[in-house]
Task: structure prediction
Amino acid sequence: MTKTAFVFPGQGSQYVGMGKELAEKYPQAAAVFSEADRVLSIPLTELCWQGPEEELRITYNTQPALLTTSIACLRVLWEHGIKADYVAGHSLGEYSALVAAGSLDYHEALRLVRFRGEAMTQAVPAGEGTMAAVLGMSTEQIRELCTKASALGLGVVEPANFNCPGQVVIAGNTTAVEKAVDMAKEMGAKRAVMLSVSGPFHSSLLAPAREAMGKLLKTIEVKDAEIPVVSNVNAQIIKDKDKIIDALTNQVNSPVLWEDSVCALIEAGVKIFVEVGPGKVLSGLIKKISKEVRILNVEDLASLENSLALLKECG
Result:
């Protein structure tokens, strides 16, 4: 039988209106949004469906909004009897993956990601940290770039996301990252662009947020995963609750090894990837990692119907 992985998106995939169509048709999806409003005591549903976009982009709003939308999509898939053999998520998406795997309770995950967003925001004052995407450089070149840029005394520059061949995101102090973008072009990068983000995610500058998350995770009930999960921090397939807690703690200020994570799933026999949640960012990355797998997504009625037809055909 063909093995399937559900993969869950992180920050950058959000948009106003996400999840609304599915929630209007499926009570299970609508319930996910209602639960989020109640658990967090904020009008999250209104923010997801009506915006404003600038509010939705604030990290401590984005994180629970994306988790909620992804879980709404997941519950609709479950309603149709579609289950995964493996799960993984990009950065924030790892929390959605752990809910899907039965390791985290959805309500606890909501509180965790809201806190995570707040801790990340507080770790580095606004404007002092940022990220940039660098295209067309090898892993070795990226590491060399970060070392050289950091040595200039302008601040920290580090690899943050190894997304797919030739696409790496770097993070650090704003002035240092801006300099690294210029240096990347001189070193032969096809493209190097600053990203519109509110902080230097997955860099050592977020050590205070890592410490805060580590303390909170020790107070939360985390269970062994019922479905194997691929961890961002080391691209290993795990189920043990202690390893999951360590992975979530370290994830805050460690690079996301997305390319390696996808490769680990392919090596485990996964032939179908379903991006569960808003956007097609992960679908695009997986396409660049392997031409041999089938990639689907579920974010609205059209994508759901298309995915269900293909999944039933393969199953």
Q: What stands out?
A: The chain is about 50% helix and 15% strand.
